[in-house]
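WARN no homologs supplied; continuing
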Amino acid sequence: MRLAKYLAHAGVASRRSAEVLIAAGRVTVAGEIVTDPARDVEEDSPVALDGKLLKGLEPRVLYALNKPVGVVSSVRDTHGRRTVVELVPAHGLRLYPVGRLDIDSSGLILLTNDGELANRLTHPRFQVPKTYRAKLCGQPIDNAALRALRAGVVLEDGRTAPARVRRAGSHTIELTIHEGRNRQVRRMCQAVGHAVVELERTRFGPLALDGLAPGAHRRLANAEAERLRALARAPTGRVL
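OK structure emitted
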């Protein structure tokens, strides 16, 4: 196993962050400073960070959480606001959210200590779909706006990929995307003339909220976790 992957699976950091730690000379293997993140190590290798020996690989866990409005999608918040990590018991594991929902949005978010899986589930290369239910203000949404969303709209950071959209009411749509830009759904709707007043993520890949109450969480079954891992093993190359 590569050293960066070992650190990620030991719950130290995501694999990308682990590469930074290694490059900074903060990681040793059997007492030797190693700066190559691709260095092969065994599962029982004596690996230390800043001189502190790691306990070894953590069990991989995945939780689904229905994030309420007003909760921050981060590990900690400098303004003292409640975070998603505080809503899920870690039992000594270092959990962090997979992707983000802005503070004004609600719905399905995943938490895990598997940094490699988290990176793959959120990287646009792997095209993991996420579905949102958006309540819009103003005039009822028309077919021209739906067609524009399906074709992709131009935002200040570039054109979005085509989305799958269906009307769920005169002022409500369900929209599926596989990108993860900042406040993307809100900006897409604004680009076609409709401000979002309520936004909820209802699906993440094959997972759905399925009646999970706001603020509630559940640990994913092994079969559910494997479906997510299979989805993130290779890029699909498909377009929604």
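The longest strand covers residues 196-204.
OK
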